[in-house]
Specification:
globular; single chain; 4 strands
Length: 119
């Protein structure tokens, strides 16, 4: 089983988000990345924060990973884990047998935080 965790300086020090408890599936992570990319891209002209480039980079990496997985003729968990490691995040930990959590560091506020819309 593969799960993902988001680690953000903005979230762990300012907002109500626990990177060690909030784990996301591949599909959930896809939605989070797309939502944040769309949001920060939509306000780029009004808020020159650079957050849009953070999410664009993560979105591009995630799309490369998705394409890799969708193009596989045979699903091999070791190959997928290696691709995640080299494409998306080298920061991973095993929390239980056969359960790997990849920690993605994001230098941006994330819409999964309960106080995101106070920004």
């Amino acid at each position: 089983m593969i799960r993902f965790s988001l680690n953000s300086l903005f979230l762990t020090t300012i907002y109500n988000f626990n990177e060690f408890e909030d784990l996301f599936t591949f599909d959930e992570l896809d939605i989070i990345i797309q939502n944040n990319y769309d949001y920060w891209n939509s306000i780029y002209d009004k808020a020159l924060t650079g957050f849009n480039s953070t999410w664009k980079s993560l979105n591009d990496k995630f799309n490369r990973l998705k394409n890799y997985i969708f193009e596989l003729k045979e699903l091999n968990i070791d190959n997928i884990n290696n691709q995640i490691y080299y494409t998306l995040s080298t920061n991973r930990e095993t929390r239980e047998q056969d359960k790997i959590v990849y920690i993605l560091s994001v230098s941006s506020p994330i819409d999964k935080d309960t106080h995101f819309y106070n920004i």
